[in-house]
Amino acid sequence: MVCLLRLTLRLLCLYLHSRLTTSSPSPNASAHLCHEDERFAMLEFKNSLSSDDSSVILQLCASSGQVSYAKTASWKAAGSDCCQWDGVTCNPLTGHIVGLDLSCGKLQGTIPTNSTLFTLRHLQSLNLAFNGFFTSRISPEFGRFPRLKLLNLSTTFFTGEVPLTIAQLPQLASLDLSQFDNLGLELPNFDVVIGNLTRLRELHLDSVQVNSNATTLLSLTNLSTLMALSLSGCNFFGPLPSMVDISKLSRLTVLDLSANLLDGKVPSWLFSLPSLNKLYLDDNGFSGQLTIIKDVVSNSSLANLSSLMVLSLSNCNFFGPLPAWIWTIIREIHLSGNQFTGELPSMIDISKLSQLTVLDLSGNLLDGEVPSWLFNLPSLNKLYLDNNQFSNQQRVIEDVASNSSLTNLSSLMVLSLSYCNFSGPLPAWIWNIIQEIRLSGNRFTGELPPRVDISKLSQLTVLDLSENLLDGEVPSWLFSLPSLNTLYLANNQFSGQLDVIEDVASNNTTMLEYIDLSGNKIQGSIPNSIFELVSLETLKLSSNNLSGIIELDMFCKLENLTELDMSNNGLTLLTKSNGAINSNVAACRRLTTLLCSPCNIIEFPDFLRNQEDLQVLDLSNNKIHGDIPKWAQDIGRYTLYYLNLSHNFLTGSLDLLQWKNLQFIDIHSNMFEGPAPILPSFTVMLSASYNNFVGEMPSAICTLASLEILDLSYNSLSGEIPRCFKNFSDQLSVLDLRSNKLHGTLSSSFEKCSSLRTLNLNGNQLGGQLPLSLLSCQGLEVLDVGNNNFKGTFPYWLGSLPKLQVLILHSNSFFGNLGTSKAKHLFSKLRILDLSNNGFNGTLSSNLLHCFKAMMNSTENRGQLQYLGDRYYTDSVMLEVKGHDLNFIRILNVITTIDVSNNKLEGEIPEVIGDLVSLRWLNLAHNNFMGRIPPSLVRLSELESLDLSSNKLVGRIPGELASLTFLEFFNVSQNRLVGPIPQGKQFATFGNNSYSGNLGLCGNPLSKKCSNDEASSQPPSRMVQDGNDSEYKGAFDWTMAGIGYGCGTVIGLAAGYYIIIARNPIWLLRLARPIKNATNQLF
Fold first, then answer.
1. Contact 1062, 1032 (CB under 8 A)
2. Per-residue pLDDT tens for 747-794?
3. Which residues, if any, are the signal sequence (predicted)?
4. Which of 697, 695, 746 is nearest to 716 (CA)?
């Protein structure tokens, strides 16, 4: 009887269990209908919210593997059983609602405390993830469900503090509050919640701001049932606890502490957790070597790491060799973005890695060869080795190719070997990769195969071969791959035409979403077939040789297009179709980036009218005339952050820019007029030079907290520099106000200038003394206050600015001695010094010249040629060179010059000037220097221009100067020199004007011949006897002339510096393409 009773009870339990686990009964099941009060509560809850079609939430749902749809659409008011509604689960015996899953349900609104949702007291599971409860707070009522076991409010955009009532859910086993930094759970609330929810098995608080020391994590040991813990991005800081009672975490299988502010050492107890199989510590501030190595190796139970399936330590600042124990990780190894060094093991027991599916060692300092065994791991499907320092990669290519078992590569789905120093032809075996091939930034050469077996590439989604040396035509089969959505072939040497797309597009078989062919040699016109690539989202064709006329409105046929770059071709883009708006324009709304510089555009494209989401617009270097149309300021009013309209013919006033989030504004080289524009509050850069702005500078500029670059040069602004500049943004790095009509003094305008790199006030009417507050500008590299009315003695104190490279004080009213203190480190970085046209007197101090350490090193920057400036602003300067005023639109870091001409300096020229061996131009003209020309000048082997004219120099011209093989300008006129002029090489190129006013000189090129006594007393010239030098010099002179006539003096001069440094004209050929594509591009 007892046995029968036990059997009956067991059958009843099994029956009840099967009924309880049924999500909802079938329509014909004999179960209770849902309770009327709960049905009413659900309908009220539905009606309190609206539907949300936000693209952001749709994408988030898709990335989580779910489909977003309006689940409450099936909730009807009359005659329906709420237990049959989408997302609703009822108890089959009682009819009470026990489960509610509205994740990805397209819900939007707020959930107040009196929401009818909180009347559902029988709920055991509540999932509202991936909905839009923007600005809504988590109601304390969420803690009033006495039976709740699962609560998921992740990615719901709730804000504020997590209510403590959450800790009052006694049955809770799974809690997920992961958000986007908009929720907080700081101490002591964090400890309260953790201390009460002792039945938790899963806890996910990603991006919930805890803001606490990492020792707080010790409280988690109270959760002995915990199996999964995810605290990514919670702002835990400091070192992890060095010791933990791991017996209290014996069930933990997943631990995620990534994206915090953890530092110090990684404690070994993490690798002692007996059940742990997934460990994520990425994006923290750990440093040093993996000091757990010794502990792991010395402990046999750890050395096996038998349970650890996934180890992720990317971007943690680790360095040193890779520890051997990482090869015991079973499934996934992620160690990218560290500084691991050394070679990968040449041999390994592959059987121990038979289950390894992902290996990511990218972004380290690994060297040596890539071992071929990596390509023989039977389960490996993702391999990332990008951005390392591997060498001799041709061998691994050959090893893989010669091994038939490797060439199948049947499991490898993703291969990423970008920037790994591979060279030679592309190996045939790469076409066996199933899903993604990323080989950018290598030196692969040759052509792509004219044909392949497309069936073997039917799953290929990404092909990135950009930044190599590949050539030939782009083969048509690339556009026939059925799954390919990303094709990057930028910055190679591909040629041919784009008509290869013709047949493919007409068949409409391609899924291409991203095409980047920029930076090649593709020519011809753009075929109409390109507009049939209906899935296309990004099209980049910039910097090719494309030509022809195309209607810009035609791109509206590509309804998914978001990014279009046609810059730097020979195209002419028409902005209208036969004078009328194209019929597709009304539907053309998704564009976020448009780059057309130059494209021969003559007016604002009409198809921009509907671009509400535009973020980047570059129409520079076109032929657009007239005012900016009023409708243009509605383009991307809330989204546009980059606008470049420079080098056009735009006119009118720009009093107020209407774009709310505009950050980068480039309108220079136009004809705008009126007052300077009032800038949006988020402005980072304004480049408005070469316009006709008038009036005073708006004081509202001082309120721009994010401003980094302000360039209003070459306008007609007047008045004083606003006093509020002393409250300027600490972010300001460039202030360029040259060539305006500003007056007044600087006073203490630069008290907050720690980030200021360039200050250019040249060509105004500013006066007074330079303020000592400039000493606050410790990052200052360029200071140009030339052509003003500043006065005072030489500001030697500027020499304490540690990064100062350019100092221009010319044409002011400075006076006194060029003295300096005895400090040894003043002006140590200075390369350009222009003190001309002032009233300095006394001697040229040897102490001052001794300070110019950067001018004493002729090789410091020879291998690192670059211009002063950054991506959005390059410094420029006006200098007198070789007797002419030249405007250097860029300042190469090898330019070194001293100009103290037109002062009242006297005494002898210091011998120490010969130690400034990197000097290229030296101008001491129009002073009262006396004595002889110092022979030490012969040590200035880089010197190109030497002007000593209009002084009181005596004696002979040192014959050793003839060995200065780069000297192109030499002027010693109006002195008291005597004797023969040195002959040979450079001195054979100087005319009579170089020596006029020296009645005692003789010899060529003067008509006065030297007597035998004078000629015989001339010391021999120490000429450079280099057999290639004469050939080089002639080539250089003609090359420079060609560049000067073809490209203008400034570009010619800039190119010439590369030739000077290289000592070989072949550099000119290498510069041909960079000069042609000299325009900086945003992307």
1. no
2. 766 777 888 999 999 999 999 999 998 988 999 999 999 999 999 999
3. 1-23
4. 695
